[in-house]
Structures are given as structure tokens and as C-alpha cells.
């Protein structure tokens, strides 16, 4: 499964993918597709709106002169998926860099029960006693975490430099 497919699964799920595989090419009307394919109309709409939220589909609305109902005419733009993926990777990279900076620029304390991690400043305020379990707080070496984060950051950076 390639990255683009994984991304699509994340957005619309395997059910959604099964739906878009059955859609005819070109502009579609959800009611018409539902009638032609026997797929539940709400499932079709849900999938289309999720694609829309991720800029992978567009619609224009038309009001039926007789009933006043709105008809949605949909166009799917899966060709946008690569630029959407680039944005996702940028976001992830940004978050990882923030996280890495945080790990590098702070000193952490924790107790034997690993209740939670405390910043040095917070640990000092409680006299290095865990406020959850009342055990002593001690310095936590985060160099392994820093290494892991640095590795992921450089990995992503090299994957985006083409
Ligand atoms: Zn504790």
C-alpha cells in the first residue's frame, strides 16, 4: 500500500475507497449514483464531504425549480493527493521539530511509577516529590528520545528534498 493510498484510507476509510472505486468518471450526482449502484446515499455523501474537506473533491449546487431542493454535482480530484501529502509531511515535520526543541531545551523529572513527566521547574515547586504518588522525583535522561526525534526529523527532511 503506497503512502497516497494510506492517506486516503485515513480520510475516508476502506468503505470510502470501495465507494469511490464504484463512481463513474466525471461529474456525479449523489442521488443518481445511489440509485445506480445501491450504495447507501448517506455513505456516499459522507465520503464525498470528507474528500471535500481535504480538497480532494468539489461540488456545485443547483436548485431544482420544481421542488426547490438542492442537488449536489460532485467532481473528485484525487490528483490533488500529492500536494495534500506534502502539506501533511510539512505539518508533521514542524511538530517533530517543535517536540525536539522542547526535549532539548528542557530538563525532565519523573518518579519510579512513571506517573508523568515533570519539567524541572514543576518538580522544584513540589520539592521533587511526585504530586501523584508521593515518591521522589529524579532526573530523567531523555537522550534516547532526542536521538529518536532527530532521526525522524532528518529522515523526513531527506524525503522532502527532491
Ligand atoms: Zn508518581
Description:
The chain has 162 residues and is of the alpha+beta class. It folds into two domains: 3-76, Arc Repressor Mutant, subunit A (Orthogonal Bundle); 82-160, no CATH class. 55% of the residues lie in helices and 15% in strands. The protein has six helices and six strands. It has helices at 3-21, 30-37, 41-53, 81-105, 120-125, 143-160, and strands at residues 28-29, 57-63, 70-76, 108-110, 118-119, 138-140. It has a three-stranded antiparallel beta sheet with strand order 1-3-2. Strands 5-4-6 form a three-stranded antiparallel beta sheet. Helix 1 runs antiparallel to helix 3 (41-53). The radius of gyration is 25 Å and the shape is elongated. The protein starts with a helix and ends with a helix. It binds zinc ion. Zinc ion is lined by residues 111, 113, 115, 130, 132-133, 135. The site of zinc ion (ZN) has 7 residues, from loops.
